[in-house]
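Researcher: We plan to redesign the surface later, but first we want a full-length starting point. Tokens attached.
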């Protein structure tokens, strides 16, 4: 009744074998992969879609979508995610979207999920890197790189769009907090999920503290 596949062991215990459907659990949410695949194929230009959970590094699982396009059309990952957010909750929107020329097939002509390539955690090569980071932005950037295992990150990249999640954000907070001169809370990282936004927030907080100190001195 739950959709789980199990078998009885000789000692009477149940051994979990998998699911009858494609439901998975990620970051505390139950997700139907078929719903994501259906939503993807409703987007203009997408011909086929497969959604999977991939462990791109130890203890870091991501929701990844593999797609093919009609007549090799060029598809933009950011635009696809924006479209998906209109019909799916945030936690069901794939972190990475990989475009393939064709899906790998089994000898019976079905899509072979095991042969789908593992994602490489790098930014889209077409993005232009922002070189003009100030000291605070560089500190945030280095922390993001370490936690996300990404080399190329832009100043306006959204933490959650490039592989981040709430657990990884907590790691960022724990590493950043001792190094920041301005006090902040973990909720501030949720409110300002880009390097630029968070750096600007810290700058405004610093100015506010200095003004308060002037008033007290006066």
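Model: Full-length starting sequence:
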């Amino acid at each position: 009744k739950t959709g789980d596949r199990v078998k009885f062991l000789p000692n009477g215990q149940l051994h979990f074998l998998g699911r009858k459907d494609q439901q998975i659990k990620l970051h505390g949410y139950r997700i139907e992969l078929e719903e994501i695949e259906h939503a993807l194929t409703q987007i203009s230009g997408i011909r086929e879609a497969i959604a999977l959970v991939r462990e791109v590094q130890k203890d870091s699982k991501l929701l990844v979508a593999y797609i093919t396009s009609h007549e090799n059309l060029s598809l933009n990952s950011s635009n696809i995610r924006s479209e998906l957010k209109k019909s799916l909750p945030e936690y069901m929107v794939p972190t990475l979207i990989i475009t393939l020329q064709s899906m790998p097939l089994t000898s019976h002509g079905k899509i072979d999920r095991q042969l789908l390539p593992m994602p490489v955690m790098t930014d889209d090569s077409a993005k232009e890197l922002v070189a003009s980071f100030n000291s605070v932005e560089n500190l945030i950037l280095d922390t993001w790189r370490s936690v996300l295992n990404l080399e190329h990150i832009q100043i306006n990249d959204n933490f959650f769009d490039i592989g981040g999640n709430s657990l990884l954000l907590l790691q960022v907070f724990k590493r950043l907090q001792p190094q920041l001169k301005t006090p902040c809370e973990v909720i501030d990282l949720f409110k300002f999920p880009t390097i630029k936004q968070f750096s600007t927030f810290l700058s405004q907080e610093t100015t506010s503290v200095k003004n308060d100190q002037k008033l007290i001195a006066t």
